[in-house]
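Lab channel / #folding
Pinned by the channel admin:
"Please post every new chain as: sequence first, then the structure tokens as a reply. Keep commentary short and put observations after the output so the thread stays searchable."

First post following the new format, from NK:
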Amino acid sequence: MRNNGASAVSWGSAHGRCAHRRIISAVSASAALLLIACSTVDQAREAGPSHETAAGSLIPDGGARVVMADREITIDELERAGYKKSKQLAYESLPGARAAWYGFFNRRDIEVRFYETHAAALELGVAPAYEATQAPKRRGGGDRGAGHEGITGYNAYLVAGNLVMLCEVEVASCEALLAALK
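Reply from TO:
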């Protein structure tokens, strides 16, 4: 019986070493992938706009389209295009912003943040917009009816002239509003 006990200990030790090696290998591989992913993101950010598209260029974070760089857009123009402003938002916490409105277009929530110039919108408005799209979405159903769970939040944003627009669901919601401008 001693042999059986000794072989069980040997097997347990070999098994333990093998499992330990697998864990170390998995951690090493994960660290290497993380390092590669982080350096790729840093390189994209340093490279500037990633590419031009028909609608505009993509900013390296992949979240924003840049369109109408030479245009200054007003809230009146957006309203004439069909934007239904609902509430003026506090904008003091948004660096460089002149105004901010919450409203909707084609039954989609759109928040517009106004800046002095297109350059200011890019320089000062992109980081807060990106953060807003990364924030956890609020779940609730109280104002939507019993048994219905709604999700509020913005999934995309774009920079249009002197505006930064936060778009519910997808950037196409904001692009549709801009297409309606005359």
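NK: Confidence is low (pLDDT under 50) at residues 5-11, 31-62, 141-150.
TO: also worth noting, The chain has two domains: 1-47, 51-179.
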